[in-house]
Design brief:
- α4 crosses α5 and α5 crosses α6.
- This protein is elongated.
- It has two domains: 114 residues, no CATH class; 39 residues, no CATH class.
- By secondary structure, the chain is mainly alpha-helical.
């Protein structure tokens, strides 16, 4: 009797958020527009997850999870992904994986760990860069002439 009840409960739990539902959740969460919205609103993102839940309900009418449940599921999947990635980067251990690792690696594995405020190539424009390079070349030539006048050896790097 106990085993039968356990199997029923396991099936009900798997039906609530089974592989199909998790994959659909990941696919909707992976959408470029959703990711841009999440980057712009990293803390107050419940409205985004409400839309994701509604999209899941449109595909699977018997889906009954809340936006908080979807957000928590994504958070658990991300945690599992980063734990697995960290464990796999350590030497000496057996390689670990889980069913959604490759799919999440395609999304999370390409993200930078730091989002800089400005990139170095965006701080100056192309004309300014050419001017700086010209000044650098002039300084190198003058230094070369000066060192050759005093008899020192100039080593080009």
């Amino acid at each position: 009797m106990f085993l039968l009840t356990f199997v029923r409960l396991w099936r009900i739990k798997e039906e609530k958020c089974g592989p199909t539902r998790k994959l659909l959740l990941i696919e909707l969460w992976d959408d470029q527009r959703v990711q841009e919205q999440l980057e712009n609103m990293p803390k107050r993102n419940l409205e985004i997850f409400k839309r994701i839940c509604q999209d899941i309900k449109d595909h699977l009418p018997d889906f009954s999870r809340s936006a908080q449940d979807c957000r928590a599921r994504i958070k658990r999947l991300k945690t599992k992904y980063f734990q697995t990635r960290r464990d796999n980067n350590m030497s000496g251990g057996k390689r670990k994986t889980f069913p959604y690792y490759d799919r999440l690696d395609g999304l999370l594995g390409t993200r930078p760990t730091v989002n800089p405020v400005a990139l170095s190539d965006s701080l100056i424009n192309e004309d300014e860069m050419h001017t700086l390079i010209s000044i650098f070349i002039i300084i190198c030539l003058k230094l070369h002439r000066y060192l050759s006048q005093i008899g020192s050896v100039f080593i080009a790097v």
